[in-house]
Amino acid sequence: MTTIAVLGAGKIGEALLSGLLQAGRAPDRLLFTERHPERSAELSRRYGIRGTDVATAAAEADVLVVAVKPQDIEPLLTELAPAVGPGTLVVSLCAGLPTALFERRLPEGVPVVRVMPNTPMVVGEAMSAISGGRHAGPEHLTLVAELLGSVGKVVRVPESQQDAVTALSGSGPAYFFYLVEAMIDAGILLGIPRAVATDLIIQSAVGAATMLRDSGEHPVTLREAVTSPAGTTIMAVRELERHGVRAALLAAIEAARDRSEELGREHERD
Ligand SMILES: NC(=O)C1=CN([C@@H]2O[C@H](COP(=O)(O)OP(=O)(O)OC[C@H]3O[C@@H](n4cnc5c(N)ncnc54)[C@H](O)[C@@H]3O)[C@@H](O)[C@H]2O)C=CC1
Ligand SMILES: O=C(O)[C@@H]1CCC=N1
């Protein structure tokens, strides 16, 4: 059975570990590294999995999943380069960082797969997009698709689309959380107790998401079905249009894509 080590067990690293455990992976086939000892101890306690150092992880694991912030990649690559063998698959979850950066810094021939997941991985509902680097063969992409398929949906994309994917689905959950937060505030504005407003909005979000996924209908059709002539919804839609919410989303997601590209450029000459 494949042994997987997560290098950098923060929010997304923990989401992956917990998702893989929930999907039935054996705890003794999972490892992690974490620079903060208290965090490491807490994760071992919570999940019954072993924290270790990068050299041990590289020696024991078949798959090394890099989950540090893009800004922290340099010291990690310096540690990893002498430790990683040609038979090990390196999977990067880092926003913006191209596979070419890893290929430059790791021994020749090490296969690298770039992935953009998202945090709903923690409930088995991740959306992950995967792209292979120069030395990644179909068997590596199949292995990564299988791993991430156990914690959500997987799509293969050309690496040139990964910055856009990062802006759409990588950051995407944050936009929905932001919307829910704002809608709960609207409930407060209208005098509804916070706990009730929270239940109303979260269940509406879950219901709408399930319809989007399961009905096969276009979002426009679903929205039109809620929008009665001279009714309440159209009054709200008029305000959303007046305040440029659609344009704001287009600009926001474009800005996120630009930042992903910039994170990659910051490491271009390393
Ligand atoms: N949070 C999210 O929604 C998503 C994050 N990502 C990517 O995942 C990566 C991690 O993001 P988060 O989990 O949000 O960040 P985070 O800051 O929560 O986690 C990073 C972890 O790495 C540890 N770390 C840093 N350098 C280390 C080293 N040399 N050795 C061992 N541990 C080290 C830190 O202590 C921290 O716990 C980033 O590259 C981000 O772009 C990708 C998709 C979604
Ligand atoms: O905000 C970030 O940079 C990371 C990448 C995608 C989601 N969170």
UniProtKB/TrEMBL annotation:
Enzyme class: oxidoreductase
Domain of life assignment: Bacteria
Gene from which the chain derives: proC
Presence of the UniProt keyword Glycoprotein in the record: no
Binding site for NADP(+): 67-70
Protein name, per record: Pyrroline-5-carboxylate reductase
Catalytic activity: L-proline + NADP(+) = (S)-1-pyrroline-5-carboxylate + NADPH + 2 H(+); L-proline + NAD(+) = (S)-1-pyrroline-5-carboxylate + NADH + 2 H(+)
Pfam family, one: F420_oxidored
Involved pathway(s): Amino-acid biosynthesis; L-proline biosynthesis; L-proline from L-glutamate 5-semialdehyde: step 1/1
Family, per entry: Belongs to the pyrroline-5-carboxylate reductase family.
